[in-house]
Amino acid sequence: MANAALFRRIALSFEGVGEYPHFDRRAFRARVTFATLAPDELSANIKFAPDEQALKCAVAPDAFSALDNAWGRRGWTCATLAALSEPELTAALEMAWRHGAAKAKRKRR
């Protein structure tokens, strides 16, 4: 079962990631934001590609749900931390971080 401390440890373990305030949340980014932690630290929003979001929500609906707004249509997904194991959370955060890292590399060119 994942929690906010594990979420932070995993998110900050990826190259170039920092934690920053983002409205009432904490954002994790390496050039672009790939995840945010809710103020109650029980859930987080993670940025997937839309097809990845659809798969995550279909396979683990207790853990993942698309945000119910335009951000959700762009792949932002709510993750219930207690419903995720450490390997599941690691895989989700790494997937989101890789998208952000790829964008950062394209911008530098």
How would you characterize the overall build of this protein?
- The structure is a single chain.
- The chain is of the alpha+beta class and 109 residues long.
- Helices cover 43% and strands 28% of the residues.
- It contains 4 helices and 6 strands, in the order αββββαβαβα.
- The protein has a 6-stranded antiparallel β-sheet with strand order 1-2-3-4-6-5.
- Helix 1 runs parallel beside helix 4 (86-108).
- The model has no long low-confidence stretch (mean pLDDT 94).
Helix content: 40-55%
* Series of secondary-structure elements, N-terminal to C-terminal: HEEEEHEHEH
N/C terminus separation = 40 Å
Strand content: 25-35%
What is the residue-mean pLDDT, rounded to a whole number? 94
Q: Report the sheet with the most strands, covering strand number, pairing sense and barrel closure.
A: 6 strands, antiparallel
DSSP helical segment count: 4
How would you describe the shape? globular
Number of strands: 6
Residue runs with pLDDT of under 50 for 5 or more positions = none
Biggest sheet strand line-up: 1-2-3-4-6-5
Q: What's the gyration radius in Å?
A: 13 Å
Structural class: alpha+beta
